[in-house]
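Exercise: predict the structure of this protein bound to zinc ion.
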Amino acid sequence: MRGTLRHPDGEALLAGFPNEVDRLRELVDQRLRTRPADYNRLFGDLVVLAGRYHWSASLWDFTDDFYAVSCPDCEAEVTIAVGDYGCYAAIRDWDLGDIERRSLRPAQAEELRDPGRWMHATAVRDGQQRLAEGIRYAFGQAECPACASVFNIAEAHTAANLPPALETY
Ligand SMILES: [Zn+2]
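Solution:
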């Protein structure tokens, strides 16, 4: 299922097996409740089983990630960092590294929308504080270092990874 978007008929194929997909999702959710050591990887599986295929394209594990997105206003390429290196938006310079860093603005848990909302609730349920925190950042807002406009990171990520016809969020 992680390869769905790379397969020309991937989505149509899976649409023929809704019960099996639901059952698999249940099983993965049950497994997550046991707080396994490979929690983040399994969490990625759950996200895919919920039909959010493009989230797996960049394997967000929300604890140590970089995403490249385009600023919706000026189209500058902005690097989003979430994790041990900090939570910021920056311009990536091959020689100088991430320059002109701007702190991300995490969403408050109560203002999260789906899929961020249920992803966050699942991580909190299972005591995965670091993951839950990362989700609040990834579904929050960033300030473009080039033009200072503030944009929604998840929407920019979706635009960068999905053909427009498939955008659901
Ligand atoms: Zn910009």
